[in-house]
Structures are given as structure tokens and as C-alpha cells.
Design a protein that fits this description.
The protein has one domain. The protein is built from 5 helices and no strands. The longest helix is centred in the last third of the chain and has 18 residues.
């Protein structure tokens, strides 16, 4: 898992240097996913949240094979948030994040 962490961190650094929004979303998804599988839920949550914040429905991911990293960030954000809520940590960021993008009132 250390190699995976190294490559995910490097992907995020490259995306930051390129200032490429699509690659930044992918970088946050990669790093968040790696941290998630290492059991580091709080730091993973921060990366998934950042990937959601950068969401743009017109964004294209030509370098990303498989599913859209924005969708993956939203999925993992829900998964991690649910895990933290069930473990006693009150964290409702998923509701706020998703409601921002679908225009649903949060209260």
C-alpha cells in the first residue's frame, strides 16, 4: 500500500503543477481511495470532499479509464460519511456536498 500511496500523492502533485481541474479531481480520488483502503477515513474524506467541490458536469476525463472520478468521489464520500456516522462521528458533509450540485435544500 505504500507504493500506491506514493503514486497517488505524485498524481495529485502533477495535477497541481499542471493546474488541470480534471486531473485534480482524479488525483483527489486516487489519494482518497488509497487512504480509504488503508483505513485512514478522515484524511480520505478530505480528498473525496475536495473532489466533490471541484465537480463540474461539463468536465471530461480523457486520461481516466473506467468511471468518472467525480462520481467515484461522491460514492466514496457517501460511504466514508456513513461509516463515520455509524461509528459515532457526526459528519453530514455528504448531504451538504451532494445538495450543492442538485439544488436540494439541506434543511
Amino acid at each position: 500500500m505504500e507504493k500506491a500511496l506514493h503514486f497517488a500523492e505524485e498524481a495529485l502533485r502533477v495535477a497541481e503543477r499542471l493546474d488541470d481541474a480534471a486531473r485534480l479531481v482524479g488525483g483527489h480520488m486516487s489519494l482518497g481511495g488509497t487512504l480509504f483502503w488503508q483505513g485512514k477515513l478522515e484524511p480520505a474524506l478530505a480528498h473525496f470532499r475536495r473532489g466533490c467541490e471541484m465537480f463540474d458536469p461539463n468536465m471530461h476525463f480523457p486520461d481516466w479509464p473506467g468511471s468518472n472520478p467525480s462520481v467515484q468521489c461522491q460514492f466514496f464520500l457517501a460511504l466514508v460519511s456513513g461509516s463515520l456516522v455509524f461509528s459515532g462521528v457526526q459528519n453530514y458533509c455528504i448531504i451538504n456536498c451532494l445538495c450543492q450540485h442538485i439544488d436540494v435544500p439541506t434543511s
